[in-house]
């Protein structure tokens, strides 16, 4: 049995705690890396993370793209949205196909 | 053509032929795997994009709702209201095997069956806006789950496709031509040896006949 975590700045994520997800309000890159490692090694199956925070620790996030769990999913926060979530989808298309043939216009 | 250093022997020839056969079979299989993976990936990635756009829009809308809710009450009230949640999500993860790629299948179970348990506060001190905000977030929860599933699947599949493509290319452009070149080289070399043995024998025969009958003297 797994749990769901949400990481990001407090204002963007506090609502998720009402749904029964565990929230981890953070803004510092270093702390985020540490927390992410801790979550990945414990029973968290999905980690939602705001694009803003994810932008600071993208290298750490990439490490988990190959493993089955946890799934680290970018969500938009209140501020600092980078469009990284959409870009990641495009990136996986590029990796698989060799060129972005599907969403080139988006 | 690229050829590796091989000994032109029959044993080596058999070995190279076997290598070629398995390389060709492997190439065919891997190519099929790549094509099928690609087909499934394209389907999945389209869904991924749609879901992502939907979820992002919904979360952004929910965030707006939360900002409004927050404007209507004090920070303390809000924090207390959401501090202890009644609801708890338990995530179950199965894995599905798609062309040797393990992809996760998530299901959630809420701790309590009552869907109103997302409102973890008394209604006396909070505004109705907060209820709306929490509700709007609860509505996207299912989509977020599916997004996690699909996005993870896409990530893993794209990695696998890349690997498979490399393997297919390596077989097609390196291993198979190499084995073919080796086989050609060995057959040529063996044929050449055979011809030279043949001519040597003929020459020896001539010499022996000459020795026995002394044709040239007559």
The protein's oligomeric status is heterodimer
Which CATH architecture of chain A is right? 3-Layer(aba) Sandwich
Percent of residues in β-strands of chain B: 5-15%
How many H/I helical runs of chain A?
Answer: 6
Determine the CATH superfamily of chain A: ATPase, V1 complex, subunit F
List how many beta strands of chain B DSSP finds.
2
State the domain count of chain A: 1
Overall tally of domains of chain B? 1
Distance between the termini of chain B: 55 Å
String of helices and strands of chain A? EHHEHEHHEH
Helix/strand-derived category of chain B reads: mainly alpha
Radius of gyration of chain A: 14 Å
Whole-number mean pLDDT of chain A: 84
Strand order of the largest sheet of chain B: 1-2
Helix content of chain B: over 70%
Largest interface: A-B, 40 and 61 residues
CATH topology of chain B: Helix Hairpins
CATH hierarchy: architecture of chain B: Orthogonal Bundle
Overall spatial form of chain B: rod-shaped
Question: What does this protein look like?
Answer:
The complex is a heterodimer of chains A (106) and B (218). By secondary structure, chain A is of the alpha/beta class. Helix content of chain A is 43%, strand content 21%. Chain A has a 4-stranded parallel beta sheet with strand order 2-1-3-4. The mean pLDDT of chain A is 84. Chain B has a single domain (22-207), classed as Helix Hairpins (Orthogonal Bundle), CATH 1.10.287.3240. In chain B, helix 1 runs antiparallel to helix 3 (128-213). The two termini of chain B are 55 Å apart. By secondary structure, chain B is mainly alpha-helical. Chain B has a two-stranded antiparallel sheet with strand order 1-2. The longest helix of chain B has 86 residues, at 128-213. Chain B has 3 helices and 2 strands; from the N terminus they run H-H-E-E-H. Chains A and B meet through helix 2, strand 3, strand 4 and helix 6 of A and helix 1, helix 2, strand 1, strand 2 and helix 3 of B.
């Amino acid at each position: 049995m797994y749990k769901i975590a949400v990481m990001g700045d407090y204002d963007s994520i506090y609502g998720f705690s009402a749904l029964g997800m565990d929230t981890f309000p953070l803004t510092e890159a270093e702390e985020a890396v540490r927390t992410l490692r801790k979550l990945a090694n414990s029973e968290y199956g999905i980690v939602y993370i705001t694009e803003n925070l994810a932008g600071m620790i993208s290298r750490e996030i990439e490490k988990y793209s190959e493993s089955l769990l946890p799934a680290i999913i970018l969500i938009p926060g209140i501020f600092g949205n980078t469009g990284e979530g959409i870009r990641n989808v495009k990136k996986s298309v590029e990796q698989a196909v060799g060129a972005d043939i599907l969403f080139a216009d988006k | 053509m690229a050829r590796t250093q091989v000994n032109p022997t029959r044993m080596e020839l058999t070995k190279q032929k076997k290598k070629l056969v398995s390389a060709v079979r492997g190439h065919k299989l891997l190519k099929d795997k790549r094509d099928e993976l690609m087909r499934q990936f394209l389907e999945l990635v389209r869904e991924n994009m749609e879901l992502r756009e939907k979820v992002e829009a919904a979360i952004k809308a929910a965030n707006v709702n939360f900002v409004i809710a927050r404007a209507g009450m004090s920070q303390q009230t809000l924090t207390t209201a959401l501090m202890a949640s009644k609801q708890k999500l338990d995530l179950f993860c199965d894995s599905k095997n798609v062309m040797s790629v393990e992809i996760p299948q998530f299901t959630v179970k809420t701790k309590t069956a009552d869907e109103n348990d997302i409102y973890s506060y008394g209604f006396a001190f909070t505004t109705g806006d907060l209820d709306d905000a929490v509700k709007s977030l609860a509505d996207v929860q299912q989509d977020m789950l599916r997004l996690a599933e699909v996005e993870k699947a896409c990530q893993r599949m794209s990695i696998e496709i890349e690997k498979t493509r490399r393997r297919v290319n390596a077989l097609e452009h390196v291993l198979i031509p190499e084995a073919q070149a080796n086989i050609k080289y060995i057959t040529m070399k063996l044929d050449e040896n055979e011809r030279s043995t043949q001519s040597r024998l003929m020459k020896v025969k001539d010499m022996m006949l000459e020795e026995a009958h002394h044709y040239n003297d007559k």
